[in-house]
């Protein structure tokens, strides 16, 4: 058992304490709420907090634990947070507010929106016994790499509050790094789980496309979006992923394949594994401290007995352009539903067209409007073949290259982000510079593969992430590699200065 304060401990540690009845779920919930109370406003990590419901649910969990029930619930009594892009049921059957939490997707256009149903993620986590604390801040509709596009203000990185926590799931990465929740969900369309995990020194995993249901996740780019966990250890990540994963008939892209016991896959052994290092991922403009930490991480895995081979993914440099056609195209279609009639904010104009225009004009932020314009342009009759169809062809090329390389190696090792956390405001004036943050993560979404980011040290006093990319539906191997690395590398107890009571 580690010496970390209760709020900074791992799920595995506190589960053991719960089992031995040395701590109660109420105490865990109060420890998180105390951190939220102390730092939440400054870090701006939460958009909604459900204190009373969380404490009441914790008491229910404590009764179950006292009576020896709930052995089959892997997260019984563990407090967590949902990115505010997952809907939470907040209306009763009569359509009246039932005390549940609102959902905003970080946008003004959904201000005050209350969902009549729960997301699959919330349902599964509730069934597993977890305690929902609240909803975390995020970039508007998950568009961003720094959490500066939230209509509710930027999130501050607990490692250095003048820097960004990564995006778009920056509230979730911050909550987990700062001891405000034992785990949190994120969504990753081009890097939004792995990149903020890298910038906050947490673990973040994007599953294979189709592994986790997207039901109840506010859609950004439907062919790329996936839900996944943020945690403080790889073992915790395995447990949460095991809860989130599984077939859901309500999501037509959810794949009906068995979910392995991910925790059992953590053998601590990487001997016999062939791990590829794609040359193209050490991109120009990458910070030298990041490269050094990632290369040292790769060397550690080699010392552990993995065979390291250099590989090539020549189409990598086309990833960014491909993504910024496909993602905005899908976003422009998905966001057509926000018309001032069905959801959230309405400008209240008498003439319908005026109402559409003003609702969308007032309700969406600048980055969302930029994406809608890019996407609408790429899908327009005259440019569809030149941009959208071409991007889909390159997408296939990128996927085929990954598939070919991954028949030869078991997984790939790469940086997660080319930089450590940067200053708030440093890249907001230059969207292209901002888009480059995801150069190492978004090809993985384009190919639909799983990827995990695990801390591999500090550069300039800020966390660096090592990315492990796997074959489709082989999350077990990337978890195994990340877990073996985590134990050997000695960064498992890295916590930001806001941690520790
Ligand atoms: N930063 C990328 C974007 O803005 C990826 C975001 C995400 O993964 N949700 O599109």
Strand content: 5-15%
Main sheet specs: 11 strands, mixed
Q: Supply Rg.
A: 21 Å
Major β-sheet strand ordering: 1-3-2-4-6-5-10-11-9-7-8
Low-pLDDT residue spans = none
Chemical compounds bound to the protein? glutamine
What's the order of the H and E elements?
Answer: HHEHEHEHEHEEHEHEHHHHEHHEEH
Mean pLDDT comes to 96
Globular, elongated, flat, extended or rod-shaped: what is the shape? globular
Quaternary form: single chain
Strand pairing plus helix content: what structural class? alpha/beta
In total, the number of strands is 11
The helicity comes to 25-40%
Distance between the termini: 18 Å
Count of alpha and pi helical runs: 15
Give a topology summary.
Layout: H1 11-19, H2 25-43, E1 46-49, H3 51-66, E2 79-83, H4 120-127, E3 131-136, H5 170-177, E4 183-188, H6 194-200, E5 203-206, E6 226-231, H7 234-244, E7 274-278, H8 288-303, E8 307-311, H9 319-334, H10 352-363, H11 366-379, H12 384-408, E9 411-415, H13 431-435, H14 442-447, E10 451-459, E11 462-470, H15 475-489
Parallel strand pairs: 2-3, 2-4, 7-8, 7-9
Antiparallel strand pairs: 1-3, 4-6, 5-6, 5-10, 9-11, 10-11
């Amino acid at each position: 058992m580690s010496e970390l304060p209760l709020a900074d401990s791992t799920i595995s540690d506190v589960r053991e304490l719960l089992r031995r009845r040395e701590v109660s779920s109420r105490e865990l919930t109060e420890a998180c709420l105390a951190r939220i109370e102390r730092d939440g406003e400054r870090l701006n990590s939460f958009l909604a907090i459900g204190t009373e419901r969380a404490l009441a649910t914790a008491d229910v969990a404590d009764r179950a634990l006292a009576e020896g029930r709930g052995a089959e619930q892997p997260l019984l009594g563990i407090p967590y947070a949902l990115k505010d892009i997952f809907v939470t049921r907040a209306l009763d059957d009569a359509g009246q507010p039932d005390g549940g939490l609102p959902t905003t997707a970080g946008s003004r256009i959904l201000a005050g929106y209350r969902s009549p149903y729960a997301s699959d993620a919330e349902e599964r986590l509730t069934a597993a016994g977890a305690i929902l604390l609240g909803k975390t801040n995020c970039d508007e509709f998950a568009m961003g790499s720094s959490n500066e596009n939230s209509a509710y203000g930027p999130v501050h990185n607990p490692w250095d509050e003048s820097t960004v926590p990564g995006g778009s799931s920056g509230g979730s990465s911050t909550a987990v790094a700062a001891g405000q929740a034992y785990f949190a969900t994120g969504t990753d369309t081009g890097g939004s789980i792995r990149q903020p995990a890298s910038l906050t020194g947490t673990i973040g995993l994007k599953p294979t496309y189709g592994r986790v249901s997207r039901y109840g996740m506010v859609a950004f780019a439907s062919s790329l979006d996936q839900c996944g966990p943020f945690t403080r250890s790889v073992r915790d990540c395995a447990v949460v992923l095991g809860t989130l994963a599984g077939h859901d008939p309500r999501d037509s892209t959810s794949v009906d394949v068995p979910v392995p016991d991910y925790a059992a896959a953590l053998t601590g052994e990487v001997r016999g594994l062939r791990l590829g290092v794609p040359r193209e991922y050490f991109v120009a403009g990458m910070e030298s401290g990041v490269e050094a930490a990632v290369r040292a991480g790769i060397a550690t895995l080699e010392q552990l007995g993995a065979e390291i081979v250099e590989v090539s993914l020549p189409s990598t440099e086309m990833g960014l352009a491909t993504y910024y056609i496909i993602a905005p195209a899908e976003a422009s279609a998905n966001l057509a539903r926000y018309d001032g009639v069905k959801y959230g904010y309405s400008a209240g104009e008498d003439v319908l067209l005026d109402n559409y225009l003003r609702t969308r004009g007032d309700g969406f932020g600048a980055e969302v409007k930029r994406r809608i314009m890019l996407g609408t342009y790429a899908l327009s009759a005259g440019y569809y073949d030149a941009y959208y169809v071409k991007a889909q062809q390159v997408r296939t090329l990128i996927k085929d290259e990954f598939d070919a390389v991954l028949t030869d190696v078991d997984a790939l090792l790469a940086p997660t982000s080319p930089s450590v956390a940067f200053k708030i405001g440093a890249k907001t004036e230059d969207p292209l510079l901002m888009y480059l943050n995801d150069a190492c993560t978004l090809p993985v979404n384009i190919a639909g593969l799983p990827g995990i980011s695990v801390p591999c040290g500090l550069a300039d006093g800020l966390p660096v992430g090592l990315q492990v990319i796997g074959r489709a539906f082989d999350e077990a191997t990337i978890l195994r590699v990340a877990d073996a690395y985590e134990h050997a590398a000695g960064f498992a107890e890295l916590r930001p200065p806001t941690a520790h009571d």
